[in-house]
């Protein structure tokens, strides 16, 4: 296990409070590598721990969770219209046909103030016109990560440093352990149906809406969808292991993504401020989310994960 690898340990920041631990990889997109509890039988993981290759390849997609700024999930064809012009993000990552998850996760973050149980990470984006598809707005972002009161708290904040308005969204992308018994509980109003490119087509009913209220099996549907009118609280439960993890988010994390693909071990329940492709989406602002930050304007919100044992 990489937790015992001195080369990896030297690159991470580990926070502790009682038996809880959070391992952070600032150089890998400011991602969390693990959130676990020490026990006599070894670590009890509340988030899916990072794969060893995630460090070698600097791949946040194989970490435990990573920040999403300045937008969440995909932008269709990597372009959108804003303030009288076209924002073209094509070419920022050849792996994806559509722009994905913003740019903060693709860069190292700087470590700021730190205590035994908390740390601040900083990232500042300076647009580079020489880089095709670079985000054309200057902004500053921060994560404050803290273990407190038996819970993991992450406060995401950002400020528009550009001289013009900037479209904006943010979120975090946590992966959870997934077993045959895993259940997800959440109060949601409707689901964004999606096309083959996982881009939203319309907001409407779906059996997953009712299933989430009752405790949806992670294997019930093939999901990579946004949910609207979320109560900003969700619980991931492992009844066979007699434990559960409750996630509570502040506004404007008013949207939730569930990624539970069929026949895969992955499970994400993501608090986000905007639905996929929100800069192109047609609908009322409360349905698609996101915002416009004026020059100098700041935004901040917190997500809390609280473990429970039955």
From TrEMBL:
GO BP, sorted A to Z: carbohydrate metabolic process
Pfam families in alphabetical order: Aldose_epim (PF01263)
GO MF annotation, one: carbohydrate binding
Source organism, top-level taxon: Bacteria
Transmembrane segments: none
Family annotation (CDD domains): Aldose_epim_Ec_YphB
Name of the protein this chain belongs to: Aldose 1-epimerase
């Amino acid at each position: 296990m990489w937790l015992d690898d001195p080369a990896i340990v030297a690159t991470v920041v580990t926070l502790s409070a009682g038996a809880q631990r959070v391992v952070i990889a600032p150089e890998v997109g400011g991602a969390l590598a693990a959130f676990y509890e020490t026990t006599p039988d070894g670590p009890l993981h509340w988030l899916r721990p990072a794969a060893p290759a995630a460090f070698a390849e600097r791949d946040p997609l194989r970490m435990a969770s990573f920040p999403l700024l300045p937008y969440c999930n995909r932008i269709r064809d990597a372009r959108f219209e804003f303030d009288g012009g076209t924002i073209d993000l094509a070419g920022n990552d050849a792996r994806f046909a559509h722009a994905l998850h913003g740019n903060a996760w693709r860069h190292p973050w700087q470590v700021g103030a730190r205590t035994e149980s908390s740390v601040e990470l900083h990232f500042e984006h300076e647009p580079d016109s020489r880089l095709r598809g670079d985000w054309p707005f200057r902004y500053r972002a921060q994560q404050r990560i803290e273990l407190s009161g038996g819970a993991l708290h992450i406060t995401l904040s950002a400020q528009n440093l550009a001289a013009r308005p900037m479209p904006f969204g943010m979120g975090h992308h946590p992966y959870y352990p997934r077993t045959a018994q895993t259940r997800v509980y959440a109060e949601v109003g409707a689901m964004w149906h999606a096309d083959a490119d996982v881009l939203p087509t319309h907001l409407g009913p779906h059996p997953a809406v009712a299933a989430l209220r009752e405790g949806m099996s992670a294997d019930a549907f093939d999901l990579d969808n946004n949910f609207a009118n979320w109560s900003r609280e969700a619980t991931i439960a492992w009844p066979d292991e007699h434990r559960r993890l409750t996630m509570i988010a502040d506004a404007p994390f008013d949207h939730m993504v569930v990624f539970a693909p069929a026949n895969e071990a992955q499970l994400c329940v993501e608090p986000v401020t905007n639905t996929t492709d929100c800069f192109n989406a047609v609908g009322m602002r409360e349905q698609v989310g996101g915002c416009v930050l004026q020059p100098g304007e700041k935004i901040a919100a917190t997500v809390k994960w609280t473990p429970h044992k039955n």
